[in-house]
Amino acid sequence: MREILIVVPGPGDEAAELTAAARSLGEVRVTAAVFGADEEAAADLAGLCERVVVFPAAPGGVFDGEWAAAALTPWIAAEQPFLVLLAHGNDALDLAPLLAARTDRPMLSDCLEIGLRDGRLVGVRPLHGGKVRARVAAVEAAGYLATVRPGAYPAAAAAAAAGQVVEGPAPTGFSPRREFVGAVAAEAGEVDITQAEVLVAVGRGIEEEENLDLIRSLAEALGAEVACTRPIVDKGWLEKSRQVGTSGRTVKPKVYLAIGVSGSFQHLGGLKGSPFLAAINQDPAAPIFAAADVGIVGDLFDLVPLLEEKIRERRG
Amino acid sequence: MDFELTKAQKDIKKAAARFAKGEFDKELAMRLEREHAYPEEIWRKACAEGFVGLHFPEEYGGSGYGLFENALVVEEFCRRDSGIGAALLTAHFASELILHNGTEEQKRRYLPKVTGGECVSAGAFTEPMHGSDITQMATTAVRDGDEWVINGVKTFITNGGHCGFYVVLAQTDPEARHRGQSTFIVDADTPGIEVASVGEKMGLKMIPTGEVTFKKVRVPADALLGEENKGFYQVLRFFDESRIEVAAQAVGTAQGAFDRAIEHIKGREQFGLKIAKFQAIQHKLAEMATQLELARLIVYKAAWLADRKKPDTKLSAMAKYYAGRVASEVASESIQLFGGYGYITEFEVERFYRDARITEIYEGTREIQKNIIAGQVLGRLR
Amino acid sequence: MDIYVCVRRVPDTSEVEIEIDRSGRALEEDDFSWDINEWDAYAVEAAVQLKERLGARVTALTVGDEDDEEVLRRALAMGCDQARLLSDDVFAGADSWVTARILAAAMAEPRPDLVLCGAVSADQGRGQVGGFLAGLLDLPLVALATDLQVEEGSARVRHEVSGGVEHLVDLRLPAVVTVQTGLNEPRYVSIRGIRKVAGVEIPVLGAADLGLDPAELQPRVVTEELFPPPQGGGAEILTGSGEEQVERLVELLHEHGGLV
Predict the structure, then answer these.
(1) CATH number of this structure's domain C2-216, picked from the four choices 3.40.50.80, 1.20.1260.10, 3.90.550.10, 3.40.50.620
(2) Which residues of chain B are within 8 Å of residue C191 when distances are taken between CB atoms?
(3) Among the options B23, B293, B363, B367, which is catalytic?
(4) ipTM of the complex
(5) Alpha helices in chain B (DSSP H)
(6) What is the pLDDT of residues A171-185, one digit of tens each?
(7) Is A272 on the interface with B (CB under 8 A)?
(8) Does domain A193-315 have CATH number 3.40.50.1220?
């Protein structure tokens, strides 16, 4: 049975997704490495994995790639897991390649899929901002490391049997070359939709200016910015700086939720970087559905409040 | 024979494209055009980065490159935005007359102002009654002691009322026609200069174009540029070079319109209309692309020759005539390819068309260019 | 202080249609325009600013062929002091591991006080080289810097961590910092800058010059095939009751990072 180590820097759904990714490789034994987790968090992880190793938190109590690499490197050397998995994200960029170099493992980054072929790690990953995908294969090695794109694997359900929780050793002889000073509060920025990762775009389907409050409220629930189509600006309902399209701003969000937007090529021309595009529109023949990843055909005045409610529920 | 740009030329082309992409904003361009406002800030930045007057020697704030490199910059600027590009390329207009004919003192006094972004320059050649024919000037300069006194009206003066100084072509020997003309550097704040607008223009809306009246304008003796009564020849030589720049403007403007048309057509294909798949459209594009390539080649050759101290009057005229024609045609066809959207300001091609048309008019209309070409081909007819 | 800045030339594929070539492992490059990787431009600017403030010596490095030299000329025109083109037939097919090995070898003399890299590249998007370098050179790493202040022997770095948060950390130099866009405002390449570097011969260093044994330069990851992302016939239209549809949509939005 292959040993797989998932490294979980912080709370969130990463662990369940990583566990799912690990189990997609067949019969495996999953160990989760966490840093300074409390009992409850460790217990949650133990519901997913066969084993949880709780390493001491880095000085400062936050995730620190230097500390994590120092703690994990000897552990990996001793336990020789077949694969080390992390969720591809900011923390992974701070740790994963460093760890791969220290443990001398081939590394696949930002995988949408991982798999095994002849005992070697293979994967599928996006290139050129998602415009093309690559099948990649690691050369034969004693062990591998990979980062998996969040959302690529649906979160695994907690297993019935709880795994064991053990303590991991603090790195020995660690003299910090990197020290945590403090967290920086995010600046309250002005509206710049080109920088937004999530946009809720509204089009003519909104019908009346007053109805924009529905969209604003939904965007707030999502943590998104409001964008719009040309006609909304023409009517003076929203600022020009929010217009997406060939005659407006070019945006590169990760997620684009188009509500009451017909999907003219002028509008879609301002949408770059292949975001996840979701559309709500009453007209099943609206061109937006040809471009979208997912759509709901229906009345936005029913769907939007419901959507907001569900989002707020999910966020607790 | 070598059709490849040098490394430095590639770097320059890329630097210009990057600057234009970073600074020329569509919304800004539309606003400046609407308000008839000069792109002050971009012009200052372009000067700071060395784009304005890069063909001037380093001692005058240039970079010692040639007309060829200047043409590359002009092309990239106009390709990104025909209006802002035109404003930048005309910022040093007629300063070359000082470069070629001026004393060291004149060069040191005026050229660094132009390259350094202190002021733009202007050439006052055209007169209301004569247009592109400059063989006889109504404007006169009369010697009076240590001064010259200039009287006359010049029209269609690019940067008129906006420049720091004019290079003025005036009759110094009224009897001798073109053999009796001289050029003068006239500071724009000299008493007696009045500027009126020529009226609303079709394009080039960010650049002021004025009718400049010189009423008993007194300039010192050392305002004379080069030799007395050689002005006509100075200006002809200048036009041989400046026409290359206008031709580069034409190529860039045409390319900019063409780029937008291509993007539009491909975009429409994406959403099911597949207009790029019509053979009629493809053939039209093939013609436009070929025209563009020919225009570019002739401009490059004319610039290349000029930089090798072999300026070719005929080739410069051909470059301006042909590239200007191509600019008008390609921009016009680009509008057509956009259909109704092409007629809408926000889609830019109509602006490119309006800005393209000037390249067939200023610095010698296309008819004048044909006269020059024919004259060069036929030689003197008896 | 010796600063190395690692740069890479990448195609701008944002506005062109991508086509896979006949080998199936690479893209048709005819329509591409190439430029310095966006993140790397910020790294160069950061290095040059440090040089201007502290008098550092900045060396720009790239692994590639003669076409890639242009990004080094750009780095020089922006103000780097010197550049090295790391080029050799045996470097062909380098993955990010091999690339990092080559870069590390080029930093043998003088040893770096600071290594700056773009956090990721626009084309490959792996985000590996900086971390690999930190491992190979045994230096501390900070990824995704959004602010960088250097003083004698130390650096204070603001960087992005998961969860939309930024942390401030102090680094003891030497160190590797990977740079996020927005760290500064990369300067334009001025005509005078181009003029200055036009005559500069950029040294080309191969495996032998770097003391690298070609046998050590085996890639660890190979690209076997490129393929277009799956494209169904338009959107997946959700079914079920309005409530079910909306719940599924929330799920999908969440999976794609839509719940910020």
Answers:
(1) 3.40.50.620
(2) 12, 15, 49-51, 54, 63, 65, 73
(3) B363
(4) 0.88
(5) 7-23, 26-35, 40-48, 67-80, 82-89, 95-101, 104-115, 231-270, 279-307, 313-338, 349-357, 366-378
(6) 988 888 999 999 886
(7) no
(8) yes
